[in-house]
Structure formats: C-alpha cells, structure tokens
Amino acid sequence: MGSFTSYFWLFVGAGIGGALRHGANRASVALVGIGFPAGTLFVNLAGCFAMGVLASLFAFRGEWFTQHSRLFLTTGILGGFTTFSAFSLDAAVIWERGQTGLASTYVLVSLAGSLVGVFVGLWVGRVIFR
User: Fold this and answer.
1) How buried is residue 74: exposed, middle or buried, by Cβ count under 10 Å (0-12/13-18/19+)?
2) Which of 12, 21, 47, 54 has the fewest Cβ atoms within 10 angstroms?
C-alpha cells in the first residue's frame, strides 16, 4: 500500500469526520443549548456504534474492502469524528481476548489519565497565559 495514497485517504476521511462532528455539535447546541456537552456525547456513542459495526463487517466480509477503504472509514472518518471509538474498540478487543484485567486497567488509566492531562494542561495554560 502506497504511503502517499494512505495518507491522502486518511486526510479526506478525517475532513469528512471533522465536518460531521462540527455539524453534530452545532445541532446539539441548537437543540439543548450549551449547558451539557450533548454533541460530544452523541459523537462518542455514535462513533463507537459505527466502529463496532465496521469491525464486524471487516471481520466477516473483509474481502469487500481494500486496506485503503478500511483506513478511510475507521482512522479517517471515525478518527475525525471521534477517537473515542478507537479507544473503545481497543478495550473491547482486549476484553474479548480474555484479558479482562488488562482491559480494565487500560480503560481506567485512559480515562483517568485523560482527565489528569486536561487538568494539568489547563493549569499550565493558566500559568503561562494568564
């Protein structure tokens, strides 16, 4: 698989996913306001559902897809839409391999570490830019 071609399709897919995410966020603000991150919740849940469907489709009908089309749909569109779907699929795959302790640790460290990262980043930003 050519490197340029892969990056091209990832670029196009991520643009589509990002545009879809922006549309979902705008729609959620119009529907429920800014008091709750409904758009983010929606894209995370919808993206995880789509990732599950695609993973099953690739597993059972993989011959229908090229590597470029898989990258376009998953890393591209879903990656631009929400990276939470990739995280969730990784956790599910580890769990389904029977490594429930590792899967639980991965989920806990990912979620807690992400929140810590945001709070530390906010603190650093305040120190630097205030």
Assistant:
1) buried
2) 12
Our measurement of the distance from residue 11's CA atom to the centroid of its chain's CA atoms, rounded to an integer in Å, reads: 15
Rounded to whole angstroms, how far apart are CA atoms 36 and 33? 7
Could you give the count of Cα atoms lying within 13 Å of 100 in the half-sphere of its Cβ? Answer: 1
Q: Distance between CA atoms of 97 and 38, rounded to whole angstroms?
A: 32
pLDDT in tens, the chain (130 residues): 568 889 999 999 999 999 999 999 999 999 999 888 888 889 999 998 999 899 899 989 989 999 999 999 999 999 999 988 888 989 999 999 999 999 999 999 999 988 998 898 889 989 998 8
Would you say the pTM of this structure is higher than 0.90? no
The pair of structure tokens assigned to 130 is 């205030």
Q: Considering the domain boundaries, does residue 73 fall inside one?
A: yes
For residue 23, what are the domain limits?
3-82
